[in-house]
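Hello again,

I reread your note about wanting to compare the complex against the isolated chains. To keep things tidy I'm splitting this into two emails, and this first one only covers the full assembly. Below are the input lines as submitted, including protein chains and any nucleic acid or small-molecule components. They are followed by the predicted structure of everything together. The single-chain runs will come separately.
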Amino acid sequence: MGLRRTATTVAVYAVAYAVLQQWGFALARGDSGIALFWPPAALALVMFSLTPVRHWPALAAAQFAVNVAGNLGEGTPADASMVFAAANVVEPMLAAWALTRLRRPDSQGGPAYDLGTLFLAAAAAAVAAVIGAAGVVWVLDAPVTAPLAWRAWWAADTLAVVSLAPLLALCLGPFGRAPSFGWLRHLSGRTLALAAAAGATSAGVFRDDVGFLDGLAAVGLLVPLLLLAAIVGGFAGVACANALAAAIAAWYSAAGEGPFAGAATTPEDAVFEAQVVLGSFVAAALLVGSAVARVQRSTRREVALATEQARLQASQRATESISRQEHRRRLLSESVQALAGALAPRMRSVTEVWEVLRAVMPGMLLADRAGVSLAGVQATQDAVPLSVGAPSITRSGGWTDVAAQVRDREDRVVATLEFRWSDDAFDVDTERALRSVLTIVEQVLHRAASAAAEREAAAASAALAHVASGVAAARRVEDVAACLSDHRSIEAEGAWCVLLEPSGGVRLVSDGGGLPTPPDRLVHLAAHGQVTVEGSAPCYVGVPLQVAGELLGTAIFAFPGPVDPDRMALLAAVADVGAQGIARARAYEREHETVVTLQRSLLPDSLDAGGEYDVAVEYRPASSQLEAGGDWYDVIPLPGGSLALVTGDVVGRGVGAAAVMGQLRTACAALASTSSGPAELISRLESFAAAIEGADFTTMVAVFVDPVGRTIRYTCAGHPPPMLLTPGRAPSLLDGTRSAPLGGPRRSPRPEQTAPLDHGATLVLYTDGLVERRGESIDCGLERLLRAADDLDGAAPDDLVHALLAALTGDHAPTDDLVVMAVRFTPLAHAVFTSLLRADPERLHPMRHALKDWLTGLGYGEDRIGEVLLAVGEAATNAVEHAYRDGEPGEVQIQAWVGPDDALVVTVRDFGRWQDLPAEGLRGHGARIMQALAQVRTVRSPAGTTVHLRFSSPAEVAV
Amino acid sequence: MSRADFTFRDDAGNGLVVLEGEIDVASADRLLEGILAALDGVTATTLDLTLVTFIDSGGLRMIHQVCRTLAAERRAVVVIAPPGGAPRRLLELTGLDDFVPVKDW
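Full-complex prediction:
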């Protein structure tokens, strides 16, 4: 609290005190000059009671000063004034202090308290009166005895306190707070009337000019009025009535009027009597008023308590009601959620949704009964639930029945959702929850229906894709039919494929699936290209297999029940795919036949080569029409009795590859006779192949066999190496000459290797179909080949070929073209002339004679012998003159035999190195002579030179 | 033993060389020397190949050599090779009959 407010409060107090003090002075009576009624005492008591002790000095000082000033103003000497002031200050402080001691914070008050308060106030006045009386008697030296002075002082203060303090206490608040008069508004009219009556009565009694209320007895009239005021108006009422009655009485008494003035002997006695009577009345009334007020307070509290209790109970009841409602709502909400939860995973099929609803609904929505009844139409597959209608609510007999109809696309009722509640159980919340349930059911049904539709569509497309992929991989008509008959993918119980044979017949490819074959009638109908549906369990559906209007056959499916239009569409699509597959397979088969026919026509008819060698060959076209064609083999007799053995493999398959093969084979045969060796042959063939589309990367192996010289030369262009079987030895691969296929990248000339060829040896040439297996290194295949040939070195070529085929391919149809060729070189025995001579011209003559004898033995004529001797002589002369020019003369080998075509073949072979070739001109006559008399082929190699001379048979010459 | 040989006869400046046997590279050089030596001083020569049983390009070269030498010395030369015989066939075969005067007998 600020100093300013304290000062203001103190100042206001001082002013109020001064005002009441002047009122008190005005009521002074008698010789003592002591006031009959001293209002400031009441103000001081109330004020100090309401003021914290720390502000008391300020209050006291202000009051002291005002009091001193007032007394001085009344003509009282200074010393007396100060004593009076001291007494007036001591009195309220003493009373206030005592009262704070009496009052306990938790005190509810009561009659004892009220009495105590009155007593303390009176006691404090008594103490102050001692001081005041002393001042009056001894300081002022007034003509009054001390007891009288004390009595007058005490009575004036006490009466003022008792009659005015309650009123002041109602008006004044705590220290520093402005006075409030709001309590006045709460006074009832009756209270005010009683207070006024008390005031008026007091005036009537104490005013002498009001005759009819004179006499002491009239004073008694105040008693009922004051008590009534107390009873009716409580503390406030009695405070008003007391103050009014006492103030008026004091006023007239001070003026010497009133019943006591006449009755008493002295004015002092009269005053005192009046004071005592008034004080008694007022105090009694005050006690009553206080008691009434207490009763009123307690009643109010009780009422308030009761009201509060009632309010609490009401709110509790409300809360309970609300929480019951909440609980109910929660149950409803949980019920709805439970339904949604149970339905959510079942949104895949409408049937499942119904099942869940049937299981879950009976306990739903706090209903007494709930369920779903399916309409008959639900049984048909095309009844797709679409909407849940608005619920119809009917109340009768204490029940509320709700029904909601589920309708399909055609607005047919599919099902009805039914609920029953007792009337009091069906409220707004239930209805709201019900609508949620209906919404959920609708959504779930909707999604389930569309999910089922989607799934069916997906299954249909998956089935179609399954059939399509199977058909795409199928090469043969039977495979396509098997794909079509794969009934599982289209959920049929069985499937058959009826094919119209090109010959006009009907072929039933039966799958069965445990079902009896479709009725003959159906097969018959199907063969006429109509979609037919027959039977119901099983239900047979025949769908024609047609491509571009051509009927190929019919696919027949068996289903356990009726077939819906969607499935019919799927079957039509499957049949369409199948028909195209069959058409394609037939085309493949035709092409395969074409390719194989072409291939076979392009390969050599017969390799029967006469007595020099035995040959066996096996060509197996790939079983798959797409893989056939492209492999070839050949045995090419070369001038001079040599042989070129060739196998090759053209990249690519089919007619194109076969055609390329044909060209290459022809070219190869033509080039072989003019090639010095296999490497040259392949190089020349490569140049030729460069102009043929599709010939690039052809692989081939070429082996040049010199049966007389017993050597072979070979090279492999991207082709697996040939195998050489020599009697008494392990099979070996003619390796070491691998190079790129035709047209492939190559830096150096093609390598060529020479190997000896023993009597009875067998060469095996083949294409990769024999040794290659999918997912396996070719080395494994070669290993297998060597193992298979291990003990076959003595076998005849025919047996060898079949043994190898059996060992390497088993009974499986080859997936790739396959060629195996075996060539065994038989010992020539007497049918050969051999002469080995030193490279000396002198040795030529004996050689000629020996040859002449041999030829004569063969029955050759003289002229013919002369020609042979001339040509061979020339070749031998060349060898003698040129082969060993640098060093020691080597040897020259001359061999002669009669070939399979009765042609005479002579080879002249040296083992040296020709430094210079025979010059042209005169010295070139030798070559011209040889060429004129025989087919000449000269093969040079680092190992030497061989000149092949082939003399046509006598028959040819004759022609 | 010689497998090829010749006889020479001088008939009033007309020399007759009769070759016989097998004339090959081994015998050609020896025959060439012998024949040229024998024909020294002879103005006209007849080379008779009728008795030759074998002749190859080496022999032919020798015959051609003889003819060329005589022609260079302006001496006449004629080769007798009966049709059907080995020498005649060889001459025709090699086209040498265009360069050498060949007579049937």
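For quick reference: Chain B touches chain A at residues 3, 22, 24-26, 54, 56-58, 60-61, 64, 86, 89-90, 93-94, 96 (CB under 8 Å).

B.
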